[in-house]
Structures are given as C-alpha cells and as structure tokens.
Design a protein that fits this description.
alpha/beta
Length: 267
C-alpha cells in the first residue's frame, strides 16, 4: 500500500559556526549548549564533520541525548569511502563508519554519500558501490542518498539504478552543481545553496515560498515542475514521501534564518 503520511524536516549544515553567535545563538549561550539550542529551533541538522573524520560512538550517543524527540541528524558519509578512484573498494570504510553511528538510533535521518565534482558516472562501479550500502543497521532501516556533482550523472540509466535500490539522489538547488530533481526513494534529500547577503532570511519571501511549496509537492508524492528532472516519472501511483531539506553554503550567516522561515511556512 502506498505511504499516506510524510514528514518534512528542515535544517542547516552543522551547528558550530562563530558568526552565528549574536545572529542565531544568543550572545550569552555557552558553546556546549549550541546543539541543544539549534535542535529546538530546527527539525534536523546535516553533520558535515563525519565527512572529514571519524567520530566516536560515545559522541553520537551524546548528540542523541541532547536532541529533542522527533529531531534527526543526517550524516555525510566519510570521504574515505567516496573520494576514491574505485568506489567498489569502499566496503571497509563504509562498514567502519556505520558501526560507529549505531548509537544515534531513531535520531539517525539519512546518510549523504557525497562524490567529488570530478567523479564521472561509471555504471559498473556505481552499481558496485550501491551494493555495498546496507538496508538496515541493528534492525533499523537505513536511508542512503547519493550526492553526485558531475553532469555525466544526468542520465536515465543512473536514475533507474537509484530507483531500483531505493536510494535518493540529492537534489541540488540554487547551486553550480547539476540538478537532478527526480525522486528515486521513499524520501527526498534536498540541499539548497542560494542564501544571499542583504536578505534578512537568506532568501527573498518569494524564494522561500517557492521552496516551501516544492517541499510540499515532494512530500505529497509529486515532483516540482520548476526543477530539472532527468527521466520520465515512474509509472505508479504517487505515494507520500519524507523530505529532508538543508540550507547549505551560500551566505552561511543567514542559513539558520532561512531554515526557520521555511519551518514556519510548513508548520
């Protein structure tokens, strides 16, 4: 039976950024309480630090305990798995990373496996990498997303491959990276990168309204008509999807304001 309910989670990249003090964080908030504060203003955070280095299981457990009910962390998969010439050889890195994140439990959202901009679509190697991504961890289903940054991935063959595996393709918004808006999983993972200086909420009111409507469309099972898709839509009834939308890059100081403005619109 098609899924009939969905959630839309909105957030930013990380929670440690000095220029947010006095803009997002109160001046008198201690640094050790930044996650506690951010997780009560937002509904998700994408953790970038996991891309650059390993975190201890105790660290993930600490994050889990600081977050409120319903909040989730999405994680960037380690670069040791994705920044390699042969992706099919990433199995050991993937296993080691997933073993460490298990303490997150229900607060684990999706995992974003970000490929470098120079990585081209190699069907055989990509299929082998996808096969290394397990469906579950400690009995809990895992959600995987692939962030591809080379135009060669804008092909129906890649879309079909992701759909067959139930893996999302990260939708890049307002960025220089190729846009692939095709839904390929029971959830959508979007990263929007167009916040600008001079806009109090990062984006104009019209742009925020547009992104909120796109999130609603995805959640209802559709595909936003004003985004760039690659392949024909699936020939099956639309089903509700969960949505993860992160305000990333751009004028980073304003990203929390943009995320909170979207949460307000989608409340």
């Amino acid at each position: 039976m098609p899924k009939t309910t969905s959630s839309i989670r909105i957030g930013i990249g990380g929670w440690t950024f000095a220029p947010w003090r006095g803009v997002f964080y109160p001046d008198d908030l201690t640094q050790k309480r930044e996650l506690e504060y951010a997780s009560r203003k937002l509904t998700s955070i994408e953790v970038n630090g996991t891309f650059y280095g390993a975190q201890k299981p105790e660290t993930f457990a600490k994050w889990r305990d600081e977050a409120p009910d319903g909040f989730v962390f999405s994680l960037k998969g380690p670069r040791f798995a994705t920044n390699r010439r042969v992706l099919a050889e990433a199995g050991e890195s993937i296993e080691r990373f997933l073993a460490s994140v298990a303490p997150l439990g229900e607060t684990l959202g999706a995992i974003n496996w970000q490929l470098p901009p120079t990585k081209k679509f190699d069907p055989e190697d990509m299929a082998a990498f996808i096969a290394l991504l397990p469906d579950a961890l400690d009995g809990r289903p895992l959600r995987h997303a692939l962030e591809v940054r080379h135009d060669s991935f804008r092909t129906p063959e890649f879309i079909d491959m992701a759909r067959a595996a139930g893996i999302a393709i990260v939708m890049a918004g307002d960025s220089r990276y190729p846009q692939i808006a095709d839904p390929t999983a029971p959830f959508v993972y979007a990263r929007i990168m167009g916040t600008a200086e001079g806009e109090a909420a990062g984006y104009s009111k019209q742009a925020l309204d547009a992104w909120a409507e796109r999130a609603r469309t995805y959640a209802a099972g559709g595909t936003p008509a004003d985004l760039e898709s690659v392949a024909p839509p699936e020939a099956r009834p639309p089903a509700a999807r969960d949505v993860y939308l992160y305000v990333i890059s751009g004028h980073k100081v304003a990203n929390p304001a943009a995320a909170m403005a979207l949460i307000e619109r989608l409340a």
